[in-house]
Each structure stands twice: as C-alpha cells, then as structure tokens.
C-alpha cells in the first residue's frame, strides 16, 4: 500500500511539473513587477535626485 501511494505521488508530481512547463505564458507576471520597480527607482529623474542628495 505504501509503495502504491508513493508511486502515485511521484507520477502526479511529474505530471504537475510537466503541465506547468508546457502551458503558454499569459504575461510577464512577477518578473515585470520586479523590473518595473527597478526602472522606477533608477529612472533619469530619480538618478538626478540621488546625485543631488548625496552632494548636498
């Protein structure tokens, strides 16, 4: 019984991984959220403010 459950869990895990890898992307998701924050932080306007703040 233990072997049967272990086998089913391994097969279902492999199938779940395969389904996630095969599905088509619907957008940038989390990577867009991370890079969008970095772009906003290091934009030209913000870079100027950071330089002025460090010199004053």
pLDDT averaged residue by residue: 74
Please count the beta strands (DSSP E, at least 2 residues each): 0
Could you name the ranges where pLDDT drops below 50 across 5 or more consecutive residues?
none
Strand proportion, as a percent range, falls in under 5%
Number of helices: 3
Question: Could you explain the architecture of this structure?
Answer:
The chain is an all-alpha fold. It has one domain (1-53). The chain has three helices and no strands. The chain has helices at residues 2-22, 30-41, 44-55. It is elongated, with a radius of gyration of 23 Å. It starts with a helix and ends with a helix. One of its GO terms (cellular component) is plasma membrane. GO terms for molecular function: protein-transporting ATPase activity. Its main location: membrane. It holds the Pfam family SecG. Belongs to the SecG family.
Short structural description:
The protein contains three helices and no strands. The protein is mainly α and 56 residues long.
Observed structural traits:
56 residues; mainly alpha; 0% strand; transmembrane; protein transport
Please render the helix and strand layout as text:
Blueprint: H1 2-22, H2 30-41, H3 44-55
Keywords: Cell membrane, Membrane, Protein transport, Translocation, Transmembrane, Transmembrane helix, Transport
Function: Involved in protein export. Participates in an early event of protein translocation.
GO molecular function: protein-transporting ATPase activity
């Amino acid at each position: 019984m233990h072997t049967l459950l272990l086998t089913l869990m391994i097969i279902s895990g492999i199938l779940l991984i395969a389904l996630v890898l095969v599905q088509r992307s619907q957008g940038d998701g989390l990577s867009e959220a991370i890079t969008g924050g970095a772009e906003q932080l290091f934009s030209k306007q913000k870079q100027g403010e950071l330089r002025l703040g460090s010199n004053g």
